[in-house]
Amino acid sequence: MPLDEGSRLGPYVILAPLGAGGMGEVYRARDRRLGREVAVKILPDDAVGDPEHLHRFEQEARAVAALSHPNVLAIFDVGLGAVPFLVTELLVGETLRALLDRGPLGAVRSIELGLQIAAGLAAAHDGGIIHRDLKPANLFITGEGQVKILDFGLAKRVGALDTDAESITRQQTLRGTVMGTLGYMAPEQVRGLEADRRTDIFACGAILFEMITGERAFFGPSPADTISAILTVDSSSLAFGAGVPPALAAAVRRCLEKDAALRFQSAPELALALEGISDVRPSPVLATTSATQMSIAVMPFANLSADPEDLYFSDGLAEELVNALTRLSGLRVASRTSSFRYRGRQLDIREIGRELGVEAILEGSVRRAGQRLRITVQLTKVEDGYHIWAERYDRRMADVFDVQDEIVQSTVNALAPTLLGDVRAPARRPTENLQAYDLYLRGRHFWNQRSPAVFGTAIRFFEEAIALDERYALAYAGLADCYSILHVYGWTPPQHNQPRALEAVTRALALEPDLPEARFSRALYEFYFEPHWRAARQPFLEAIVARPRVAIFEAYFALFLATEYQYDEARRRLDHALALDAHSSVVHFLAASASCVMGDASATEARAVRALELQPESLGPRWPLTVALLMAGRHDEAIAAAEQVVARTRAPIYIGVLGMVYGVAGRPADARRLSHELDERQANGEYVVPVARLSISLGLADVAGVRAALEACADGGAAPFSVVATNRWLLDRHRGDPEFDRLLDRLHDGARPVPSV
């Protein structure tokens, strides 16, 4: 039964139909819990009562849910009630079938898409799943050119090649059941024999042939004729036409061998063959823009390795290139946070470039196989979308730093040759230990998530990197920053965090006194831990002078200035940070936090909302948004915002914010209930940061409670910024009381509000 607009399946509201196929109907829907649009697939009426169809539907859910790869459709939820349904990511673009209906794609585009299909298949096969129905209609091309493999309804679980594998449908191939789509089925499928990974390789070859030539590899006027062609037409007889590289034609023919033993034996093997085709490449288009005008963004590099967990390495490589290019004074580089937010977005590269305000985009992919490394990069001109330069690097892991230098030099040579003098000297190696470097990238991957919940993992990787190279200054700086952030959120007690942060930052500066990251770590440590935290001004300025175009440095310095009551300078620094990185959710979050400290409800709300637009799942911006709504007297909205945060985490600091909101909004019983919860948790041995009690006491106007909690905070129990971030607008109302003035002076290291002129 078709679903009407507005009908509901659990938390999902149906918006519009998207299409239908043999395995179900698909609708656009909205997830009311997370506020995002999704795709919902339901079984057709004639299948709901069919146990076999229901089983296949359930197995598709299991098959897709077992995979996690950018080239495989992501599944979010499954419902197996009266109306069985799957919930997946909502894609914008078109199927490969629709694209091919307009004509062949040519060699270059076919290789690009073929590599992504192979990467998705590799992930599925590594997860023990073969597709068995790979065809253009089951391949989706997003607006930014990313391939998504769809419809695992005929998928099958497999082990090693040629074993008796358990089909995840109940129609066993051993009983001679033909499953798949004619024209893309391997000979073993049409014979009803056992299928394995190489069956998908055959289908991939048929798809590649059609992308290159616009014709089906095996096709006849009737199904019987098509089956005959699959079984009898030799792949060597397939005609590719003029201009197709012989190596590409040979790769496709090998995919289409009748004997599975003669095909590529795995998807990674096919991918390596496609990547090795060197006689097809776009012609370079030299840029003529002057160096002083040039700007560039480095996109997150695609992870084509068999292990999706290697994403940290491809991200780390791209981030290293951002850092290296940023050091060139004549080149403006979009920040990591600005460019990485486009991961998974269905946008044309020209649209991304226009949004970021850059003239060129550097993108690429990384494949790791043991100690071998293959990196492909291409530089694209935003104005017309043509490639300026492209290259492939086949190296050992030991050469990764040399490859980074070569990419930087080639990029600058293509964009702004006058800058070459700045990059001819190789960048200083942060470590000579490649395993330590790998661990550092893993740690930084988790640090960049800016979530205390994953900082424990980041800490472990930084510590392991240091164990391998005790002179790795960047790893010490990353370790120090983790402990500083844990303290400011009140996740762990200061007696745990402070000595570890101090030891790490001291070691980083001893090893590399001029390292900007180490100076920033020192500033963060002093700001968050030291009673005389205003001394952090100097290391903040030193870091900014050493690396003047880093928006994060500027934004954190603005937080420091706002905490110090230096509101005019804080606003100037915020404006500069946002100008440097207008598309960073983190920078907008920090700007919202600083505005909240300064009591500017309007600016806080605007910046928090923008941060959430850029990164909807982010938790951080929701607390300044809550306080902004509360300051503006919009109590119901503030309660809703705070309750959304606490629904995701019951960390004491967020419980405190909700308690403050309840108290100010006239719900004291609810505020006291949360206070009792904190009491019980502390009695059970959990660390409860005193700023959480301070917030609830302020909301309840409990003067004695405020005084006691403020004393605990001033004694070192909480970072000064943590105290004022959500509470200054209420705390400053107590100024004029000698006891409160004394405590606030201690907390603020003597800083006081600047009198209005």
Can you characterise this structure?
With 757 residues, the protein is α+β, with helices and mostly antiparallel strands. Among the domains are: 8-90, Phosphorylase Kinase, domain 1, CATH 3.30.200; 94-275, Transferase(Phosphotransferase) domain 1 (Transferase(Phosphotransferase), domain 1, Orthogonal Bundle), CATH 1.10.510; 291-422, Rossmann fold, CATH 3.40.50.10610. The strands form four sheets. A six-stranded antiparallel beta sheet has the order 1-2-3-4-6-5. Strands 12, 13, 14, 15, 16 and 17 form a six-stranded mixed beta sheet that branches. A hairpin with a 5-residue loop joins β16 (372-381) and β17 (387-396). α28 (690-700) runs antiparallel to α29 (703-717). The longest helix has 21 residues, at 106-126. Residues 157-179, 281-293 and 418-426 have low confidence and may be disordered.
Q: How would you concisely characterize the structure shown here?
A:
By secondary structure, the chain is an alpha+beta fold.
Estimated helix fraction = 40-55%
Name the CATH architecture of the domain at 94-275: Orthogonal Bundle
Find the CATH superfamily of the domain at 94-275: Transferase(Phosphotransferase) domain 1
Q: Indicate the radius of gyration in whole angstroms.
A: 29 Å
Distance between the termini: 70 Å
The total count of helices amounts to 31
* Helix and strand composition category: alpha+beta
Strand count, sense and closure of the main sheet?
6 strands, antiparallel
Number of strands: 17
Shape: globular
Mean pLDDT: 83
